[in-house]
């Protein structure tokens, strides 16, 4: 069995990630999710990587507390280097038995330090603090600390909620400031849109002339978004495409190396390991690299290191017949490979889309004639990439017994520019994970459980598309 390119521990799942770059290596702390009853406390585990393709599981890094401690669950936070060169870790402490004034488990900011290069952590319970008046006690989490050199102080951002106002629009990124990383004072909110339930896992970084704020929202979307500004004090503007990925990719936080910015998040699993199961909290780690466009907006794609790790060609019949034009002005056609593909592969298709085309794209794990397949569909008239499956949910045995009120997999659509001309669709399939990238700008991740194997195909509907390039590659583990 080939080694997965998406990290997941053998004894659990990857929750929120806290990435940190150290001497050219990424130290990826994450909330270690164990699905058992009774549920154990949550610790910070650690995985390290130098090349973003091979991951070393280091096990538990920050242990959670006992069932009577304030940090029975050690939730999301951040790591910084203090003025002495030591590492200081900020995290959320929570215990279901420790209730706040509003009757829900209290969330607290807690600290730990390391003087041996993050090999061991010493907790400092005396530095613990909770939300001030005016904020709900059950939402005071995910402390993100960064240095504001212009102001000469440390700033801490927190996912919080106002205690008054419309119930589902109290979300705010609260803010505390400090001179010494130990004593914190509450100040005005960092961002206060009064729009959604809450904005989790805040992250802020500078890149060139721009500042970026990243957060994951509790809304109808449950997705990770970003905002742009010319200073860390805003005002924050909304880019045309403000999401990092779709519904399946969540709680993404960032780290920089050699001038490159990487987003580390998790692809959610689904209940019952089935396509129609509800999304679950936590899953498998996935890495996207951000690319800064000329106007400051961000595009998202696979890191070159990941693409290059797929180096062995997989021969497919379709690739021998290029360029291939699919021309169906008022119909649908598909070409499907003769061969089934391995369970892990990288695919790259270059599609030259003619004006007026309704749809085109790739079939994944398809049957011989394309009538049963996962579908990555480009829809130029609607300006979007969607993930679909055909047939969709069956409601009976007859051929017309299919769910007709779901146009594609809900929450798995991404707005994109599909102007006439060439577009590049890249895909990595690895077991039950599928990640697609369009034009190195737009990413879409999902799970694929129900069809474990099949062929690859290209298709067009109501228009014309020319397939000018099709590559399929796999990894060969040493």
From TrEMBL:
Its EC number is 3.2.1.26. It holds the Pfam family Glyco_hydro_32N. The lineage of its organism: Bacteria, Bacillati, Actinomycetota, Actinomycetes, Micrococcales. One of its GO terms (molecular function) is beta-fructofuranosidase activity. The keyword DNA-binding does not apply. This is beta-fructofuranosidase. Keywords: Glycosidase, Hydrolase. It comes from Pseudarthrobacter sulfonivorans. One of its GO terms (biological process) is carbohydrate metabolic process.
């Amino acid at each position: 069995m080939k080694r997965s390119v998406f990290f997941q521990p053998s004894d659990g799942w990857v929750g929120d990630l806290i990435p940190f770059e150290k001497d050219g290596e990424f130290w990826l702390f994450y909330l270690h999710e164990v699905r058992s009853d009774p549920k154990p406390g949550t610790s910070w585990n650690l995985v390290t990587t130098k090349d973003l393709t091979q991951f070393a599981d280091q096990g538990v890094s920050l242990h959670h507390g006992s069932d009577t401690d304030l940090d029975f669950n050690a939730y999301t936070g951040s790591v910084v280097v203090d003025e002495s060169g030591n590492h200081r870790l900020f995290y959320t402490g929570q215990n279901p038995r420790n209730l706040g004034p509003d009757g829900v488990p209290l969330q607290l900011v807690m600290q730990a330090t390391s003087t041996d290069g993050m090999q061991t952590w010493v907790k400092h319970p005396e530095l613990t603090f909770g939300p001030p008046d005016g904020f709900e006690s059950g939402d005071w989490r995910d402390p993100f600390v960064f240095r504001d050199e212009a102001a000469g102080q440390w700033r801490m951002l927190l996912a919080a909620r106002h205690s008054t106002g419309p119930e589902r629009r109290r979300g705010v990124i609260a803010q505390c400031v400090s001179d010494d990383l130990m004593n914190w004072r509450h100040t005005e909110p960092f961002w206060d849109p009064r729009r959604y339930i809450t904005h989790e896992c805040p992250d802020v970084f500078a890149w060139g002339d721009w500042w970026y704020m990243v957060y994951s929202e509790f809304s109808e979307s449950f997705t990770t978004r970003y905002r742009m500004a010319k200073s860390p004090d805003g005002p924050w503007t909304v880019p045309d495409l403000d999401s990092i990925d779709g519904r399946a990719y969540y709680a993404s936080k960032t780290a920089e190396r050699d001038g490159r910015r990487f987003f580390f998040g998790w692809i959610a699993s689904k209940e019952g390991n089935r396509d129609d199961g509800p999304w679950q909290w936590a899953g498998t780690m996935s890495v996207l690299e951000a690319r800064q466009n000329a106007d400051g907006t961000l595009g998202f794609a696979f890191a070159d290191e990941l693409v290059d790790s797929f180096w062995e060609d997989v021969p497919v019949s379709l690739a021998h017949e290029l360029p291939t034009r699919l021309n169906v002005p008022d119909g649908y056609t598909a070409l499907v490979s003769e061969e089934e593909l391995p369970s892990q592969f990288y695919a790259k298709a270059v599609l030259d889309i003619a004006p007026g085309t309704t749809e085109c794209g790739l079939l994944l794990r398809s049957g011989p004639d394309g009538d049963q397949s996962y579908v990555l569909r480009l829809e130029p008239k609607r300006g979007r990439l969607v993930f679909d499956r055909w047939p969709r949910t069956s409601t009976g045995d007859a051929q017309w017994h299919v769910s007709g009120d779901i146009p594609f997999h809900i929450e798995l659509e991404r707005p994109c520019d599909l102007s006439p001309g060439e577009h590049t669709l890249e895909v990595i399939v690895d077991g039950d994970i599928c990640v697609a990238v369009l034009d190195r700008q737009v990413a879409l991740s999902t799970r694929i459980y129900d069809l474990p194997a099949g062929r690859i195909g290209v298709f067009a509907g109501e228009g014309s598309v020319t397939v000018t390039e099709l590559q399929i590659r796999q990894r060969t583990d040493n």
